[in-house]
From TrEMBL:
Signal peptide: 1-21
This protein's name: Spy/CpxP family protein refolding chaperone
Protein species of origin: Desulfosalsimonas propionicica
Sorted UniProt keywords: Signal
GO cellular component, one term: periplasmic space
Stored InterPro entries: LTXXQ (IPR012899)
This protein's record includes keyword Protease: no
The UniProt record lists the keyword Signal: yes
Amino acid sequence: MKKIAFIAAGVFFLVCMTANAQMDSQQSMKPGMMRGGMMQGAMGAMHGGMMSSSPMQSSMIMVNLLPEMQKQLSLSENQTDELIGMRSAFKKQQVDYQAKMTKHNRKLQDLIDSSAPVDEVRKQMKACADIRIDMHSDAYETEQKMKAVLTDEQQEQLEVIMAEHDDMIQKAKPKSRSKKMQ
């Protein structure tokens, strides 16, 4: 039983560390990098790319992406400033979550290293999961607030841009072998 708990705790720890690494890589993106290739890469990840394994990941990408879409969405200076402010507040909050996640992951590892009872390990695993849930729900909430800053026309334009990009991604994907064989 202890072996199963140890393996489960190890797997969960790796999942937490992966989430932590994803957040770190997103936070290292500079606003100027979102133009051109990086912006396309972020939108590709949002629509079936490598980050689509987490449905909430698109919210984190959108929070970083929207302020950079000034020209595409014809954002006013006030809208751009408001979106940048929301993104800045979001990023500061994410740094706090990262610190909490690191602290809880260390405590989880200490519990595992000391062969703590399964109940204690489970409790610590839930604490790590709760932080990740908070991170993603805050990203979703920030995305919704950011979209509320846009006019109806800008929201429609954003949907068009995302749909066009999604179509482009789908067309660029190689056809599966099963379709070729038919």
